[in-house]
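Section 5.1 Outputs to date
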Amino acid sequence: MSKRFTLAALAALPIAFASVGAQAQMARYCDGRIVANSFYSNVQSNGSRSSVPYFVQLQNQSGESIRYTVRFTAPHIIGAQNGSVVAHLASYQQVTVQLGQQNFNNPSGTGQLSQADMIRYTQVTCPR
């Protein structure tokens, strides 16, 4: 094996591991027809209080429109999606859904939810 080949293979390893990690964070719903491309939050603070809205970006992976509902079951969330609203997502389109918001005093000893928690507390269903 040449030095050049070995160096190229070693250089590609971090990229391979990064893509595996990214795939592990992707959530699939409704038999894989809807994929959560990203979960994110935006911390807004005035020094004494913080507000953290949580979002998910959903993408329709199928060639047909899909009816879906979103439910966010994390504790202490204001205005959480409760699964009562049926929405439509056109084929191959994406939408950003606000999951809910968390407010707390600084420092409160609690922080914003992790991405893993957002994934765990998010449920997407597709009624027929």
